[in-house]
Every structure is written in C-alpha cells, then in structure tokens.
Design goal:
GO terms for molecular function: 2 iron, 2 sulfur cluster binding; 3-phenylpropionate dioxygenase activity; iron ion binding; monooxygenase activity. With 464 residues, this protein is α+β, with helices and mostly antiparallel strands. It has 14 helices and 20 strands. The protein has helices at residues 3-6, 23-26, 47-56, 154-157, 182-185, 189-195, 215-220, 228-231, 279-290, 296-304, 314-331, 340-343, 415-430, 447-463, and strands spanning 38-40, 63-67, 76-82, 85-91, 97-101, 115-117, 122-124, 131-133, 138-140, 161-167, 170-174, 202-211, 252-256, 262-266, 349-352, 356-361, 364-373, 376-388, 403-404, 438-440. The strands form four sheets. Strands 13-14-15-16-17-18-12-19 form an eight-stranded mixed β-sheet, sandwiched between helices. A seven-stranded antiparallel β-sheet has the order 2-11-10-5-4-3-6, with no helix packed on it. Helix 9 (279-290) runs antiparallel to helix 10.
Length: 464
C-alpha cells in the first residue's frame, strides 16, 4: 500500500504547518526561534546546539538511508552513518529490508563498512568469527563453551534493529523503535511526490562533496527559487518588460506543511507578468549545467519540434512537452499524469524533514541529502542524485556512489551545483561575523525555512 492510498491527496492543502512555537517550546531550547522570521546565527555553528541535534533529533527522526537500487539482491548491504551511529541496511531473502546496528554484541567490533554483499546471507564478525543471519538473529558463537548461558542468550546477542521502511524508491530508517510510522511522518510531502511518480524513478548517477557549511544552512539554499537570477544568471531567460518589478517575476508559491516539510512550486502570475522564459534555452542550460531534472533525451525531443516557433511562447512549451509525453508512451516509460497539479511542481521542490529534498521535473528528479560530517557543526556531507524513469523492466544494475569530488571539480560537477556550492561556504563564514546575530527571512519567499526550524525546535523541546 502506498502513502497516497493510505492518506488521501485531497487533504494535502489543509496540512499546513502549525506556525510559530510558544514559550513551552522556546523556553527549553537554546538559540530558539523566538521570532518566526529571524534565525539565531548560533544554530548553525554552536557545539551546544549541535549536541542537542545529535541526542534528540537524529536518533528520533525518519531519515532517507539508501536508494533501493543499492540493494538489488538478497544479502546486499549498505552502511548508513549519522552523527557517529552506523547502521547496516540489508536486503533479506524475501526481498524485504532490515536496518541493523553495526556493532558486534561480543566486543563491539564494526561488522561491515561501505557496501557489499554478505555471502550465504551470513554476517560474520571479522574479530572472532561470530555469525548472524542477515535478519540479525545469531547463528553461531565461536567459543560458545567459554560463555555463560545468560551471556549468549539470543535475546542478548541478536543484533539490534532500527525501524526500517521503504517508500518512493528509498529505504528509510528511524533509530527510535517507538517513533510514529514513516507513513505518518512523511505526510503530506510523500503524497505530493507520489503524484509526480518518484516511486518509479531510478538513479542515473550519485555523487557527493564535503562542504564547509552546516547541514541546515546548506539545505536552506534550495528551499527557495528566487536566488536563481543572481546565483544562476544563465538560467534567467525571462523577457524584460519596462516598469515590471523584480518581485512580479517570482511567480512561485511557497507552502509550509506539517511535520516540518515544505514546498515551492509555480504560482499564479499577474495579467501584466513580464513574459515567459525561453523554454528551449532554459532546458539546454539545465541539462548542460547539471544533467538532472532536464536530461539530454528531453532536450533532443524539445529541439525536434522547435522549427520556426518562438521558443518563449506557451504554444511552443505545450508542443514540446506534448512531444516528450509521446516519447514516453512509445518508449514504455511510465510518466506522471500530464495535469496542472503535476506541472506546477516542475522546477520547484519538496523538502522532507529533516534533510532530504526532491526537485521533480517531467519523469526526472534531482535529489539532495545533506547530513553532518566528521562530528563538526561547520561541515556537511552533501550528496546529489540525478533520478529518472526508465522503460518498465529495464535492469540498471546495482547503484553505487560515483565518487566524492571537490566542490570546485568542473570535471564532475556541472556549473549549476558549483555555483550553489560556492554560496554555501560563503554563508558559513558569514554566519560567524560578529555583526550578525541572526539571519532575516522573507515572510513570503523563505517561509519554509522558518517552518523547518520551528519543527526542529519542537523535536528538541519534546526531549528536554
């Protein structure tokens, strides 16, 4: 059963965020969000705040731990690490997935690292050779005669589990066995994304970089689209009209949702809105700049129907997208429905609290996962996926990380991510400037940033 089936999509627009917190929350949390549009600077570098996140956020929240294509066969495993906690995500013989704490119950040895496959569906400790089935049940204790019966009681030495569920082509974990279900926690963001067909997407590539920026500050750069004109000028192809204010071109609606999730997508333009962007030029720049959201196959189809048409007109845009959907049909690619609700999110994004973002477009999506790195609030591990929908039944093989690349590596990162990465480290340096006590958020354009922080404070206060 999918999340969309469990929680009706009709309730999405009513699942608006709770709003600013009261004193029952703000009085408990250091550097709390006491004003909804001011974020205290210390939240991005304070060791005290970071330790609270380590203790009360990451062990209690659902996290995207792996793509399902990383685990195509029984016995396949990947390691997921968060603030010093290592979890093994393991494909079971029945093709279900389990999450096991990565520590031997004998002398605490780490059982595996990275990714691989457990031969014979057995996890073997490299120190003394104790063995467990891939479901965590003990199968062999080497030197059994040297232990008391109590010491090697299976209840004591079976590997400990974390909650583990799948949704949208992802594996999600929660270290808290008492936490609410994934299906409840992802509402309403998952409903919206299922409408976009993300559950049918597979990874085209997966890369990462280590960035000198707090994980929250890094992801907030993608909660809004109005940085495009300055940060990505090559993507700004709107026709200028005399007398139009810049704000009128920000044709975007921002919605903060329950559970800390947020969305931005196309909004309603004024009748005097200053034209549309050049659709074909934008598609070319998007593909060449990051090879995600818009792919080479999409651009090829858009070019094939351009002819003598003005590629900034709505007529051309609809003809190009219609041709793309005809291609999907002929190629056996299950595309999302061609509806206004779906199209509005193309070029926007969904943030799934606490640290995962999806930016769907056509039958593709860009995805980001940003998490703390090396036990330092000033650094993050920034992972990027290009996702797309392939013809049904096509075997893509096992997904592995392409590599970890420097943020300035123009051989492995397109222009768009390099432009974004440059901003992130500038923000982390600036956030510590003694003249700055807080960042200032726009009430309209940055409301989902505020919502994420409000939810974070609620999570922390609940444990204090």
């Amino acid at each position: 059963m999918t999340i969309a089936e469990y929680l009706p999509v009709d309730g999405i627009e009513e699942a608006i965020a709770l709003g600013p917190n009261g004193a029952d929350v703000t009085s408990k949390v250091p550097f709390a969000m006491t004003k909804p549009h001011e974020v205290p600077a210390e939240r991005y570098y304070s060791r005290e705040f970071y330790e609270l996140e380590k203790k009360h956020l990451w062990p209690k929240v659902w996290q995207m731990a792996a793509r399902e294509e990383e685990l195509p066969h029984p016995g396949d495993f990947v390691e997921y690490e968060i603030v010093g906690q290592s979890i093994l995500i393991v494909r079971q013989p029945d093709m279900s997935v389990k999450a096991l704490h990565n520590a031997c119950r004998h002398r605490a040895t780490e059982l595996a690292s990275g990714c691989g496959r457990f031969p014979g569906n057995q996890i073997v400790c490299p120190f003394h050779g104790w063995r467990w089935k891939t479901d965590g049940q003990i199968s062999h204790v080497f030197g059994r005669e040297g232990f008391s019966d109590e010491a090697v009681d299976p209840l004591n030495i079976n590997l400990r589990e974390a909650q583990c569920e799948t949704w949208g082509g992802h594996v999600w974990i929660n270290l808290d066995l008492e936490a609410p279900s994934l299906i409840e926690s992802l509402f309403p963001a998952a409903n919206i994304l299922e409408r976009q067909g993300v559950q049918r997407m597979k990874a085209k590539w997966w890369k990462e970089s280590i960035i000198n920026c707090n994980w929250k500050l890094a992801q907030e750069a993608f909660f809004e689209g109005w940085h495009v004109k300055q940060t990505h000028p090559q993507l700004w192809t709107y026709k200028e009209v005399d007398g139009e204010e810049e704000i009128n071109k920000q044709n975007v609606a921002y919605t903060p949702f329950l559970n800390g999730h947020g969305r931005f997508q196309s909004g309603d333009a004024r009748s005097s809105y200053g034209g549309k962007p050049d659709f074909l030029h934008s598609a070319r720049m998007n593909w060449s700049g990051q090879d995600a959201m818009t792919l080479e196959r999409d651009v090829t189809i858009f070019e094939s129907v351009a002819g003598e048409l003005d590629t900034s007109t709505p007529e051309y845009t609809m003809k190009a997208i219609g041709a793309l959907y005809e291609f999907y049909k002929g190629a056996g690619i299950p595309a999302p429905p061609f509806t206004p609700e779906v199209m509005k999110l193309w070029g926007g994004d969904i943030h799934l609290f606490p640290n995962y973002l999806m930016l769907p477009m056509y039958a593709n999506s860009l995805a980001y996962r940003i998490r703390p790195y090396n036990d330092d609030p000033d650094w993050c591990r920034f992972e990027v996926w290009s996702l797309t929908t392939y013809p049904e039944g096509e075997d893509r093989g096992r997904l592995t990380l392409t590599g970890r690349y420097d943020k300035d590596d123009d051989d492995h990162w397109g222009l768009i991510p390099r432009q974004d990465f440059a901003n992130l480290e500038r923000m982390q340096r600036g956030i510590k400037n003694q003249s700055l006590g807080h960042t200032t958020l726009a009430e309209q354009w940055e409301i989902t940033i505020s919502n994420m922080h409000q939810e974070l404070d609620r999570r922390l206060a609940a444990e204090l």
